[in-house]
Amino acid sequence: MMISRSSRFAVLFAGLFLAFSMVTADYAEARRGGSFGSRGTRTFQSVPPTRTAPQPAAPVERSMTPNSAANNAARQTPAAQRPGMFSGLGGSMMRGLLLGGLIGLLLGQGFGGLAGMLGLLLQGLLIGGAIMLIIRFFRSQSARNQAPAMAGVPRGIDSFGRNAAAPREADNFSSFPIPGIGSGFGRTAPANDQITMTPADLDTFQQRLTEVQEAFGREDHAGLRRLATPEMVSYLSEELADNAKNGIRNEVSNVSLLEADIAESWREDDRDYATAALRYESLDVMRDRASGKIVAGEADRPTETTELWTFTRQDGGDWKLAAIQQP
Length: 327
Hints:
This protein has 327 residues and is of the alpha+beta class. Among the domains are: 91-125; 158-164 and 177-183 and 191-327, Nuclear Transport Factor 2, Chain: A (Roll), CATH 3.10.450.240. It is built from 7 helices and 7 strands. A hairpin with a 5-residue loop joins strand 4 (271-288) and strand 5. Helix 5 (199-218) runs antiparallel to helix 6 (221-227). 24% of the residues are buried.
């Protein structure tokens, strides 16, 4: 079969586009990104949206935490089945009426018996419908009487960073306080696992952001071990090793936090967790290790990034980076 010149051009263009995309992906894979780490028992749960990161966070892609809890919950939860036509009380009534009509037909009542059966069936449906309406009415009245009145919830410290002092629209963002101080975003953790964040904790998170980024840019493995969990150190060290293998170096400097807030904070046994949404600027470039030439990024133009960082501490020790997620 002869291929036209236009078809050959289209195939060539598609091939060049695919090759260019693969080259771009190589640089993108070498740079920091993705969602990895552990958040304790909430590793595979969604993070509540915040003012800084209103979009849903990407699920954790790489974690040493087994996903057995989520799988067990999925297996233990029975699949919701739509009730069939002949199920429940109405089905039992209908089966009884049909059986009675069939017996009457076989005993010689003929179509007269069938007509009587249909009339009885209609009466049964009307009675069943009336009973259902009465039950629904009493249920709605009971739920209305049992609903507690919602009292006003005092606001706590819910953000930190450069824009922390900016006025907030209380009507639109009143649901983003730190867990343990105010209400949650439609989901409240049990009282025994909530913890309260202090201004000192928020300052530590801001400091960890700068320290981790700069340690990564310096390829400072000792610094990363001091600032992050062993699991996170393994992932970051793997990225640094890949960069070295590809002959490039990722330099990160001038990290500046623009806005941040706490998505959730909780305790598991002797370990505390806190997930913070961070929006920051930094000079992030990729250089050739031999020549020092920039191969990706701009040295004089900061890039803006929004990420979800989870920190953990044990027995009241120092906070360490435990997970990074992309919104």
